[in-house]
Structures are given as C-alpha cells and as structure tokens.
Design a protein that fits this description.
209 residues; alpha+beta; 3-stranded antiparallel β-sheet; two-stranded antiparallel ribbon; 3 helices; 7 strands
Length: 209
C-alpha cells in the first residue's frame, strides 16, 4: 500500500506541474492580447488627434484668406508644394505690407505652424481642378490644401474613405500623398470683395459693386 501511494503521489505532482505551465502560457497569451489591443487603441487615438489638428490648421488658413482684403488677387502667392518651406520672419509685415507680401508672410507663418504641430508636418496648396487650367482664369475661387505627416497607421488605411490621399490640381495634375505618410485633404474657398471677369485681354479684371 505504501508503494502504491508513493507512486500515485508522484504521478499527481507531475500532472499539477503541467497544468500550471499551461495556465501560465494561457495567461501570457491573454496579457499579450490585451497589450496589443491597447497599442492599437493608442495608435488610432493618435491618428484621430493628428487629423483633428490638420483640420484646425486648414481652417486657420481659410480664416486668413477670409480676412485678407480681396484675397483672390493674391491667391497665387499661396500656392506651394510639399518641398517648399518659406522662411518665416515675424517682423516682415510689422509696419504694413501689400497684398502679395501679406500672402507670402501668411504662408510662411502657416507652414511653420504645420511643421510645429504635426510630426514632420508638410503642406501642399494648389488650385482645384475645377478652377480652370490657366493662371489668368477669372473663375478660380477654390484652393486645395493637403497636409501630410509621418505615417502612424496600419497598412491599408490609406484607401479608407476617411483619408483623402490624392487631390487633382488645376490642369489635371495629381497631388498625391507622399510615401510612408498620412494625409488629409480639404478644399477651401477664396474670398473676394471684387468679382473677377475676363474682358478678352487675357488678364482678369475685377469689378467691385
């Protein structure tokens, strides 16, 4: 009886050890799963925050255009690609400046805000495709603004409806989101106190009521 009890006791201890190891493996897998969900949630939250910041930056540029007297006249000065980084000089318009100089100052200040707000933030500003193909087209009233920043999304999300990754500039040229980056695209109207019209001379004139 003693020998049988000893053998049974040893056998039961082995089973308990295996059960403990299986339980540890299951617990470890559960913890890893929870960590994965937390990391995914954190990434999605960061992406949402970045998009909200991009929207606010585009709204800021839109407000700058709204308060600029007859911004349609100097709107070409706002056109800029991703690689263009104008030098921001805080005192550039301290004593006043004309429409073109104000547009240059606003663009430099705004692009600096994009770079300071978003990780590796860049921006491209272009005339929308529907706004005519020539520089002197008097019907141009809408700018496309695409902001890009360092990618922080899983593969495949660039094709989602929430992400506008390609715009079309006036003339039909595509303005695409750079590789390995996330982009947000919006179109903003250009305000005008005077309406442009074409008198046939090739240079738009402006009628102020």
């Amino acid at each position: 009886m003693t020998i049988m009890n000893t053998t049974l006791h040893k056998h039961q201890r082995g089973i308990s050890l295996i059960e403990s190891m299986v339980a540890l493996v299951i617990a470890a897998l559960g913890i890893l799963g929870i960590l994965g969900v937390q990391m995914r949630t954190l990434t999605d939250t960061q992406t949402t925050v970045r998009r909200a910041q991009a929207i606010r930056l585009i709204e800021d540029l839109s407000e700058r255009l709204k308060i600029t007297p007859n911004a349609i006249v100097s709107a070409d000065s706002y056109k800029s690609d991703f690689a263009t980084v104008p030098t921001y000089t805080p005192t550039a318009c301290a004593t006043g400046c004309d429409a073109a100089a104000l547009a240059t100052f606003d663009l430099a200040k705004w692009k600096k805000a994009v770079a300071d707000t978003l990780p590796l933030g860049q921006a491209s500003i272009f005339w929308a495709q529907s706004e005519g193909a020539t520089a002197n087209d008097p019907n141009r009233r809408q700018l496309g603004v695409m902001i890009s920043w360092r990618e922080n999304e899983r593969n495949g999300t660039k094709t989602d409806d929430i992400d506008a990754s390609k715009g079309t500039a006036s003339g039909g040229a595509d303005v695409a989101c750079p590789d390995n980056r996330t982009c947000h695209l919006q179109y903003i109207p250009v305000s005008a106190r005077c309406a442009p019209y074409d008198n046939g001379s090739g240079t738009p004139l402006f009628y102020c009521s």
